[in-house]
Amino acid sequence: MFSRQVTKNTSVLARGFASSARANRKVAVLGAAGGIGQPLSLLLKSDSLVTGLSLYDIRGAPGVAADVSHVNTNSEVKGYEKDDLKDALTGAEVIIIPAGVPRKPGMTRDDLFNTNASIVRDLAEAVAEYAPKASIGIISNPVNSTVPIFAEVLKKKGVFDEKKLFGITTLDVVRASRFLGEIKKADPKDVKVTVVGGHSGVTIVPLLSQTAHGKGVDGETYKALVNRIQFGGDEVVKAKAGTGSATLSMAYAGARFTNSLIRALNGETGVVEPTFVKSPLYESEGVEYFASNVELGTEGVKKINPVGELTAEEQELLKACLPDLAKNIKKGVEFVNSA
Ligand code: NAI
Fold it and tell me: EC number(s) per UniProt (predicted)?
């Protein structure tokens, strides 16, 4: 599926990163038996860069692991449940977290805070103890708050490395590319849209002017497209009618992000993914975490790219994003520190 990347990686290995081919690239998925966790685990099993898969959930992960383990790729798969978190995390280099409840129709991502905040906090405590050097990708919503929660726990435990904590916002970019491609009747693989900010509603800021296909989109079409990118997740929540939110497209996006992260860890250069990280870009406006295009490297975050030139409309979108994002981040930080 991610063959372009894999081919590229092979050439990188041929150029002298041969040791990375043997490197441990064990990936742990926490929440592996869920709607996202299952297809994500399957996609990771089909990624030749993943050398081991550790599937954990409070229930059901051994079954998912037994099933996925029959796929004839080289990685070893193990399933863990209930109290086996220590074994699941030990030796993991990359940890991807889709644990927690999804939205139902009418809910915002912030409505999930009460349930998911404590799930993410507890998982962070275990990661701090058993895999403190791992790179961590958070899918659990609200990402704008769960990433700061995770960071605060790691800080308290003295193991926070801001280069290694990522909120996975790839789905916003995948959607933007698909939706703009539909309007322009273009193959989405040729339509790359930068999306910055956060991962919910108005905090999602697509920068359509920065892509050739997006430049000519204006008026009502522009407004409708921006709205669809910001609230595209609601289409899925509504269509699933109470049974969940995006799982398959999210698994695709999560697998793409993980593949990019591993390629960069393996020494490939020029790997850029949008992701929500601790960022200096809008820190002076009280926004400590921000999603933008980030160049990944052997240590995680290598370079945080600025947002670039914005149109007047995009400046307005950013103006609407920042205060909401600041609130979401503060809520996460306070959740950990007021406990
Ligand atoms: P789901 O309910 O199908 O699966 C969640 C899984 O987490 C369940 O198997 C559950 O047993 C497990 N779980 C609960 N507490 C746990 C714990 N303490 N440790 C380990 N596992 C635990 O939900 P789904 O659809 O997979 O969504 C998961 C999360 O991903 C939700 O918060 C959802 O809002 C979020 N999401 C994020 C997106 C993004 O773009 N970042 C996109 C779509 C969903």
Answer: 1.1.1.37
* Residue 139 near residue 112, CB atoms below 8 Å: no
Question: Is the pLDDT score of 106 beyond 50?
Answer: yes
Rounded distance from Cα 213 to ligand 1 centre (Å) = 34
Q: Which of 109, 121, 175, 199 is catalytic?
A: 199
Instruction: Report in angstroms the alpha-carbon separations of 209 from 134, 152, 309.
Output: 36, 35, 9
**The CATH homologous superfamily of the domain defined by 15-169:** NAD(P)-binding Rossmann-like Domain (3.40.50.720)
pLDDT digits (tens, 9 = 90+) for 269-299: 999 999 999 999 999 999 999 999 999 999 9
Q: Is the pLDDT of residue 22 over 80?
A: no
pLDDT (mean) for 184-198: 97
Check if 199 is active-site.
yes
Q: Is the shortest distance between the CB of 274 and ligand 1 below 6 Å? A: no
Under the banding of pLDDT at 50, 70 and 90, the label for residue 104 is confident
At residue 17, φ and ψ (nearest 5 deg) are -105, 35
125-160 as b/e: b if 16+ CB within 10 A: bbbbebbeebbbbbbbbbbbbbbbbbbbbbeeeebb
User: Is residue 50 scored above 70 in pLDDT?
Assistant: yes
- State whether the beta carbon of 68 lies less than 6 angstroms from ligand 1: no
Confidence of residue 2 (pLDDT cuts 50, 70, 90): low
The CATH number given to 170-254+267-276+286-337 is 3.90.110.10
Q: Please state the domain extents for the chain.
A: 15-169, 170-254+267-276+286-337
Helices (H), 90-169: 113-130, 143-156
Whose tokens are 């990522």? That residue is 166
What ipTM is given for this predicted complex? 0.99
